[in-house]
Design brief:
Layout: E1 6-10, E2 16-17, H1 21-31, H2 39-46, H3 51-62, H4 68-88, E3 93-94, H5 98-107, E4 111-115, H6 120-130, E5 140-142, H7 155-164, E6 172-176, H8 179-187, E7 192-196, H9 203-207, E8 213-215, H10 221-227
Parallel strand pairs: 1-4, 1-6, 4-5, 6-7, 7-8
Antiparallel strand pairs: 2-3
Helix pairs in contact: 1-2, 1-4, 2-3, 3-4
Length: 230
């Protein structure tokens, strides 16, 4: 096992604690179209995905609609303004020990990049609320807007590697709170894939993607890296 030189961390539910507000908003804009999907269904079928894709996949899996494409487009058009209003009133914080963990890794020369199924504007609004800055707290941010293919395709991880000058994917660790994060890491041939239990999906759900480790939170990440000699 090569040393890990880059950790790519999902945002909502992994590094950012925003009480699943994004997926509650996905649930709202879908149900505003006359459906009755649960938050659990939204998390099961939409977690970690670019949000238009998430809405489409939830509609496919949880409704009998015969006009999914147009309904998904209408719901997504409502998603951004609805989320913007919610975010303006939302307290955003990180999970205990996560900022210290990132600082510790960066002090040892490990790059830390956040990646997300959010669009760039939404992701930047979260960083602003947290007071995090690229170059100071993280080494980069990759959003759904920055790549052609979203999760589970590996494009965002490859973009993160390019930002940090990493050429070997075995030197990359990917961590997230949903199976699609793990699938993304495996599709990029990352050296380690990590599931965390602070967000969208539970241990049973995460195990279906076969991560190398499942942790209670990212705060435990240095222990895994110490075991692996990183």
């Amino acid at each position: 096992m090569k040393n890990i030189k880059l950790v790519v961390l999902d945002m909502a539910g992994t590094t950012v604690d925003e009480d699943n507000v994004v997926y509650k908003t996905v649930q709202k804009v879908i149900n505003d179209k006359g459906f009755n999907v649960s938050l659990e269904e939204v998390l099961a079928h939409g977690a970690g995905k670019e949000k238009h894709q998430a809405i489409t996949d939830v509609l496919k899996a949880c409704t009998n609609s015969t006009d999914i494409a147009s309904i998904a487009s209408e719901a997504f058009a409502n998603f951004k303004p609805t989320l913007k209003l919610t975010y303006e009133q939302l307290e955003v914080k990180t999970f205990p020990g996560v900022k210290e963990m990132m600082k510790g890794l960066r002090s040892k020369g490990v790059f830390v990049v956040l990646n997300t199924g959010y669009d760039r504007k939404t992701a930047l609004s979260l960083l602003l609320k947290l007071g995090w800055e690229t170059g100071k707290d993280i080494d980069g941010l990759v959003t759904a807007d920055d790549v052609l293919n979203g999760r589970p395709q590996p494009d965002m991880i490859y973009k993160a590697m390019k930002i940090c000058g990493i050429t070997e994917s075995q030197e990359v660790l990917k961590a997230g709170d949903s199976t699609i994060d793990i699938e993304e890491g495996k599709n990029a041939n990352c050296g380690l894939t990590i599931g965390v239990l602070t967000g969208a999906q539970n241990e049973k759900q995460l195990k279906t993607a076969h991560p190398d480790y499942i942790l209670p939170s990212l705060a435990s990440l240095p222990e895994v890296l110490a075991v692996k000699g990183a």
